[in-house]
Structures are given as C-alpha cells and as structure tokens.
Amino acid sequence: MSAPVLSVSNLTIDLPRNADRQHAVHDVSFDVAPGEVVCLVGESGSGKSVIAFSVMGLLAKALTIANGTIQLENEDLTRADETRLRELRCTRMGMIFQEPMTALNPVMRCGDQIDEVLQEHTDLGAGERRQRVIDMIEQVHLPDPERMYNSYPHQLSGGQRQRIMIAMALILEPVLLIADEPTTALDVTTQAQILHLIRELQSERNTGVLFITHDFGVVAELADRVAVLKQGELVELGTTQQVLSAPTHPYTKMLIASVPVHEPPVRAAIPEDAPVVLKTEALDKQYKSFSFGGGKQVVDAARDVSIEVRKGETLGIVGESGSGKSTVARCITWLIQSSDGRIWLAGDDIAKMPKRDLHALRQKVQIVFQDPYRSLNPRRTVGQSIIEGPLNYGESKADAWAHAQELMQLVQLDPEGLDRYPHQFSGGQRQRICIARALAMRPELLVADEAVSALDVSVQAQVLQLLEQIRDRMQLAMLFITHDLRVAAQICDVVAVMSKGQVVEYGPTRDVFNNPQHEYTRALFDAAPGRDFAFARSDS
Amino acid sequence: MTDQFPDESSQQQTAADTAVISAESAEAIEVREQPSVWSRLLRHPSVIIGGLLLTLIVGLVPAAPFLTSLDPTDISPRNRNKPPGFMTVHKDEEGSKYEVKAVMGTDKLGRDVFARVIYGARVSLMVGLCVAFIAVSIGLLIGLLAGYFRLLDAIVMRFMDGLMAIPAILLAIALVSLSGASLFTVIMAIVIPEIPRVVRLVRSIVLSIREEPYVEAAISVGTPTPKILYRHVLPNTIAPLIVQGTFICGSAILLEAILSFLGVGVPPEIPTWGNIMAQGRDLFQIYPHSIFYPGIFLTLTVLAINMLGDGLRDTIDPRMSREF
Fold first, then answer.
1. A392 and B222 in contact by Cβ < 8 A?
2. Whole-prediction pTM value?
3. Range of the domain at A423
4. Which residues of B touch A388 (CB under 8 A)?
5. ipTM field
C-alpha cells in the first residue's frame, strides 16, 4: 500500500477543565491512504468532529492537543503554524460541512466563493480562474454552470449548495478531503446523489477521504475502512466488511444491532373491529402570503390527505422535507388550522370546531416533538411540565403528581427526577419525559413528529421500543411522522408515503416496503443508504 | 385509566434496559451545575465598580439632611457667587449667625451648591427609576401582546413606530405648555418615547419564544393563553429587560438634565442637577463651579448605571451566555 496521505497517531485532545470528561479524544491512531474512504463513526459526543477540526487546524481555543501527531503527507500538522496551515487548506486538504447554507457566505455569488480559493492560492488570471470554476461546477454535475456561477446560495437547493461546497473543497485537487456529516441535513434521495458524487470525484482523483457520520447506512454505502469512536476512544478499526458484518467490540455490536433494519418485521394484525380513532377526509392546508408587487401567493402544504388510524395501530407518514407530513400532524393536533376537509377525532369533526369546544377534545390527541432540547421549558422542573396539562383539565395537584410518578416509571426513569430541571437529563431521557407529558393527558391518539430523529442510534432504538410498549399497553392509536424509512419499517403497521403535499402511496407497511407501487416510493427506497448491506445481527 | 399503569412496569424491564437506564441516570447526576447568576455577577468588574458607585450616590438621598444643615432653596444675597471653600454666613431661626464652609461654592442667588447637588440627587434618581419602571412595565405588557397575537402586531407596531418618531424634547415642550412644568410631566415626556424601544425588544423575544416546541406543547396540553404568556414566555424576557431598564434609567437621568437645562423640565425651584447647571449657565465662564459639580455627579451616576447595565448584560442576558 502506498504511503498514507493522513496519518493520525496517538492523538489526545484535552477538554477544558470543567467538562464532563478529561479528553475529547484519547490516544487515537489511524491512517487514510490515497484513494481510500475512511469513515469515522460514533454517537454524538464521541469526538469525531473534534478529530476532523484538529486535522484542519480549526480546533476551538478551549481544546488543546495534549499528545500525538497528525501527519499530512509526512508533515506534522500539530507543529505547523497558522500561515502554513492556511497554505495547506484547500491545496492539500479540503473540508465540507454539514450545513451547506451556513458554510457558504449568503451575500457572495457561489462562483465568486469558489474563485476566492483560486485567488488565494494560485497566480492564475481572471479569465483562466473563471474557466476553471465553471469546469469544476460542471464536474460536480450542476446544471447550467454559468447560471450557478452567478447564483447566490439561497437560490440553490440544499443538494446544490453541498455540490458547490464540494467544488470549492476539491478545485485545487487536495490529497485529502474531510467531510463532516455532509449529508445529514439532506433528504435521502439527495443524500444518495451526493454520496455518489463524492465517490466518483474521489476515485477519479485518487483523493483520500475522511468521512464523518453517525449513519451506518452511509458507512456501508461509502467506506473502505471504518473507525468506531466511543467517548473519544477508538474502539474498533477495520475494513467495512469486517466491522459491519463481524464486529468484535461490544460497543460496535450494540451500535450495529441498534440500526433499524430496512425489512419490516411481521406484526400482529390489528383486530378488524378496532374502533377508528382518527380519520381525515380530503384534508387541505394552504399557506397564503401577500407581498407588495408579488400579489397573493398560495402554497399547498397538504392536499387531499385522507388517512385513518385505529385503536392500537401505528400509522407512519413518511416523506422528505417539505412533503407536508408535519403539516398534517400539526393540523390534526390543532396547532394550525386546516384550510379544508374533515378531521374526525373519536367521532367528532374537529377541523372546523370553534376553539371553545375544542378545549375538551385537545386532551384526546397529544404530540411529541423532534427536538428534546427545546420541547421542555428549561425554567420549569420536569414534574411541573408533566402535570401542567392535567391541572388545566381540573385534576388535583396531588393526583396529577402521583400519576406523573407512575408515568416516570412507565418511561423507565426514576420518579425522583420530577424535581429536576430538563438540563440535568440527556437527550434520550428528555424525549422520555416528553412522552410522559403527552401520556399524562391520557390521550387516545399520540402523534410523534420525528420524535426519534434527533437521537443517537442506540437511544433511538430504546425510545422506539418504549413507544411500542406504551402503544400496546395503553392501546393507543399512534401517528408516527418520520423521514427515516428504516424507523418507519420497524414501528409502523401502516404507512402513508407523502410527496409534495399529497399521499402517493398508502398501505400496510410490509406491502409498501416489499412491493412499492408508486415511482416516488421506489426512488425513496432505492436511495436509502446501506439498504442491501448485510449488517451483523447478533440478536436475530 | 390510572389502572393502565401497573406498578410492576419497572420490574418488567429486561436486565439490559435497566443497565442502560442506570448508566443514563448516572450521567444526569454528573452534570455540573453552572455557577449561579449571583456569583457570576459578583465577579464581574464593571458590576462591582458600577454597583459601588451607584450605592454611594443613592446613599446621598437619605443622608442629605445629615451631610448639610443648609436648605438647598435658601436664597442669600450676601453669599452670591462665592468660590468653593468660602466661609458663608447664615442666620438660624433665632437670628444668631453661624458660618458654614461652602464646599462647592454658591450660585448666583447665594444658594449652597453642595446642598443643591445632594438634594438634587433625589429628583434625578427618582426620574431615572420612575421612567425605567414605567417604560419597562408598559412596554412589557404591550410587547407581550403584540408579539403573541399576530393580528394586534401590525396595528400596535405601526403606532409604536409613530411614537418613536417624536423627539422627547419636543414632546416635553408640548406637554409643559399644555399642563405646566412638573415632575410628572417630565417623567411622562421621557417615558413615552422610551416605550416603543421596550416594546420592540419584548416583541422580538416573544416572536422567537412562541415558536419554541415547549410553547406548542403547552398549547396542546390545553394551557390557556394568559397562562402560556405568564409561565412560558414572560420569564424569557426578564433578563434582557433588567439590562434594558438600566440603560433607560441612565438615559432618563441625562434627558431630565437636558430638559431642565433648556428650561422645559422640572420647575426651577426644585433642585435637580439639570436645573443647577441651567442656573449656572449665565456666569459659567467666571464661576464654573456651579456647573462643574452637578455635571460631575451626573456623569458619575450615568456612568455607574451604564457600567452596571453592561455587566448585567454580560452575565444574565441569555444571548451573551448560554445558561441552559
């Protein structure tokens, strides 16, 4: 094997003194060979981004490299000064980030931003530079390069912006590309295209890639070798096949076992006579806006959505961002008012009900949000948040508190925690608290709006299991909104696939997954990363 | 329904589950507490300096009768325009004479500048505090409503834009000519243009907080709107409002001095720092002391309040430090 482009050895990075652990990264060693894709994979807080930033010389001031070397083509970056690092960035190593919107300057044209790299690092004339930028935009397969050159970032889609970032990172043909979760913010079909593009450009140019991700599907799709990090320590390093199919470290085994499989399991049938809890008929939601000169603009966020959830059943709504799935959830929970159609909740049409009458029905439908860090008021104790709803409906404080204690046990948390504040809990625990708060209302329908999307894969598996247990025990109807097909496959009895505000496919999960009818559903499934990869399944 | 939550629920967990949960709880306990706001405040240099200075100046208010035996409004023709350090002669109620050293000299009517400055602190500080309190209270209420109810927003904010366009001095002149010069008029004249600034601040906070999922969660558990405003939205506005309040207080003291200096403020018989300076204006070049001393006090007070405000902003404004 040729000499590695990047060689990290015994790297230890210290955290500031008052942090929860001593090292951000401890004694990590790995290489990236030319033309090789090495994936750093780990949960949040595992130190994977810290490694990427230390290679680029972009570490936050509070973090210090305590030990070890980072060698880029045999040059030790830990000893390089700021001037040298600036020379190396873009010429020898390039980086792409998670959020292409914030990584690009919103007031500069995309072409000028790529051109800036050439201006800084080459002596080319203006005409030559422009030609090179246009060529590069073409190479990242953006349509109409001239127009792209003159566009501002906000005029492009997320995927297009990420292509601009890639063009910027690769225009000087660096030997190393660092990609820090570059597809996490993108939809699954766009993600597949970007991964394909990275693969293509990287093999054309023989670039070494250090790819950071938390998604094992992406790892399976892209990586040659995988390094698994746990709390700053490298626990396993090997080829993708080895690590994903035959992991040796217990942590890796646990992580891989937590990855939901794409294949829906056989689920117990819902009894035919189970009562319908929620039914929508031709639900419409339009957003209208007025602007001077622009006149009236109407956006159809949801069109003609008809779904049905029975007691004890989970209906999944799957779709990409902007497909209208959250709009449907918010109409049903009456956080926004639907424009047209009917919403039958336990026999009452709530779509056009006056607010006064709605109060009594609110109790029957409860929602759990995506972001566990923002769904609890940081100034109120967990207990206060949980009993807020029951108190609104006239329950006595003592009863509500006793019920809250039972619920804490139900969501597998210590009832003592009721007196603590949300910041004293981890993300997964907070999501359990949010579930407890929803259950405190004794709802008939629980809406989970991307409720596990912000969680790490191992925590995600636990919360999914918890939701399933609760649904069975309390015979809840559940509406589960997600963009993640694998999660939907695991928990839903029935799925509705949404695209551009409409339900394009609707049926039992196994039927939809095994035999998708609609073109869009098929495209969505094909784009799911690592779909055909045989992950190690110790439990199955 | 309660029966649906059997007590043995926790015992039904698998061993693996329990292990994970105990690990998670352990992690929660390890979370270190941030140092409290008070301890951070007491370590901030500009809070300490500003706070001490302000305490001294505020201390003048109750201490004034003990610091000087002279009446700040006592006119004494024989003691006119005496320089600082001059021994002035006064008569007590029984007619016997006594001498008092005029530390800061006397003004053109023979009144003791030191007595006027320390008694003037009362009015100046009162104007500052009243304006800050009234402007913040009214602004908070309007801002909360405008930020939360979109329909109200368009109307209220246009009205606020209009108010903001009125210069305080013009408004004061108009009010004084309508209702005569008084402390109340001056406070009102300063409060009115100050309110829109508070409203804008509160409204911008409310606009972002009302989109927070925890507010939506409160809506979906049926919490009535007034309770949502009071419980979930209002506490987020307190820290920035305290900071804004100090700045309003500082600028109100300054504005009151300007109004008095221009002769449209507090009636001339009430000593305020602005009034004292206004009356020293004619002979300023020959006897600068009657402008210099109140000027120094005014500067120090506004400086102290602003330093305190800066320090408060650094320590308690959530946009400056992430507490949670």
1. yes
2. 0.80
3. 374-442
4. 218, 221, 223
5. 0.80
